[in-house]
């Protein structure tokens, strides 16, 4: 099991051990719009997380000519595996490779 599991949001379970979907902890959100009006990078972490700590889930969005989202890409870990886990540093978002 990865050491970043502690960074994942918490869910409550019902009596049958199913996730109660409106019980997910609220997350802090950061967005980077670069020079335009489209959201390019989106990041989520637990509230109060430092942008310098490896506790962020980061994704990069791509758009078509009509400003419609056409893909969401995830950064590669140091092992070269795309990940949507909470193990990245928000401050380093532009330096990651996304697939």
* Helix count, DSSP H or I runs of 4 or more residues: 0
Envelope shape? globular
Indicate the percent of residues in helices.
under 10%
What is the N-to-C order of secondary-structure elements (H for helix, E for strand)?
EEEEE
Distance between the termini: 23 Å
Mean pLDDT: 86
| Structural Rg | 15 Å
Low-pLDDT stretches are none
The major pleated sheet works out as:
5 strands, antiparallel
Strand content: 25-35%
Q: Output the structural class.
A: mainly beta
Total number of domains: 1
Number of strands: 5
Give me a quick take on this structure.
With 99 residues, the protein is an all-beta fold. 0% of the residues lie in helices and 27% in strands.
Describe the structure.
Strands 1, 2, 3, 4 and 5 form a five-stranded antiparallel sheet that branches. It is globular and about 50 Å long. It has no helices and five strands. A hairpin with an 8-residue loop joins β2 (41-45) and β3 (54-63). It is mainly β. It has one domain. The model has no long low-confidence stretch (mean pLDDT 86).
């Amino acid at each position: 099991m990865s050491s970043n599991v502690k960074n994942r949001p918490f869910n409550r379970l019902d009596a049958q051990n199913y996730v109660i979907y409106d019980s997910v902890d609220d997350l802090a959100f950061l967005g980077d719009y670069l020079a335009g009006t489209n959201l390019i990078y989106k990041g989520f972490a637990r509230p109060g997380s430092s942008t310098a700590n490896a506790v962020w889930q980061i994704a990069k969005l791509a758009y078509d000519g009509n400003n419609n989202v056409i893909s969401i890409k995830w950064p590669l870990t140091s092992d070269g595996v795309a990940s949507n886990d909470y193990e990245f540093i928000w401050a380093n978002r532009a330096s990651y490779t996304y697939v």
